[in-house]
Amino acid sequence: MIYDAHMHTPLCKHALGAPEEYAAHAVKRGLKGITFTCHSPMPKGWWPRVRMDEEQLPVYHELIKQCAEEFEGKLEVRVGMESDYFPGMEDWIEKLHRENPTFSHCLGSVHYFGPEYMEAYWDDDLAAFQKLYFTHLADSAETGLFDTLAHPDLIKNQDPTYYLIDDLEDHIGTCLDRVAKSGVAMELNTSGLNKRYPEMNPGPQILRMMAARNIPVVIGSDAHIPYRVAADFEEALAVIEQSGFTHTSTFIERERVDILIGDARDSLVKESS
User: Is pTM beyond 0.90 here?
Assistant: First the structure.
């Protein structure tokens, strides 16, 4: 019943394993399908060490096509993209998505630690930088370019000691109001459990704020290695249920599909020891 809506391929230069290995683990976990969302190409010279080159897009499509053919009848395998949001790059991303109509799910990410982002916006004021991050999340939603906002409190990993969610709550609430109005979903990214701030992205406080605003939630593992596919999904379902959600969502051919939490939970196969 459930998809893992966020995972990568070695084309991003920091993931391991063939797409077929990710798909095989998804089958073991009882998933209905997976969507590969590798890091988007960007203009030449723009943080190239963490993404595929534009010339590799045909290779990316072919890799996922071959995987889908191999797992036909056992698992739905789709191609998507995790595209960076950076002010001034909207036309680039719009063209990328328009010229790749087979993208099934488009994630929007604000990667605050990217060198271009830091150069443009970091001025030694951590509180202001954290607020700007959330402002840019809302800006990205309002572009209409993305289905889901990925790991939407990633900024807490910059300096976990000084991520004071209560101090940011009013500003985050204003930004979430904008996201809710846009109709864009937000991700619960389970890989946050392995980061400097060991908590899913976003944490429970923001999840409750999302639920109060009826912002759809999409679960993704952000797997960069096959065994991470669907990692901690049982916990993720429990967390969103405790936050006030009745269902989780995914995107198929850029249309949102909702799944009752109970149905999603019942469909999962426990991790083997």
Answer: yes
